[in-house]
Specification:
Largest sheet: none
Distance between the termini: 7 Å
Oligomer: single chain
Radius of gyration: 11 Å
Length: about 70
């Protein structure tokens, strides 16, 4: 099944989203992408807004409904 809201993410947000759903910490993601943790926080906030969730748990629950 397809989650239409995912198509609204930018390419970088998609990269961050993939890391979030495998439960990586923001600090680890920031180090991997060579950016600040604040940058990852902003991407995470944008992802949550676009996918209409406020936590990783919200996003994971929505993902589990799609599978």
């Amino acid at each position: 099944e397809y989650w239409p809201a995912v198509s609204t993410l930018t390419p970088r947000e998609v990269e961050v989203f993939k890391e979030l759903i495998i439960n990586k910490k923001r600090k680890e993601i920031a180090e991997e992408f060579c950016v600040s943790e604040n940058t990852i926080k902003k991407h995470t906030s944008n992802i949550f807004d676009k996918l209409e969730g406020s936590t990783r748990s919200d996003i994971m629950a929505k993902l589990s409904q799609i599978k």
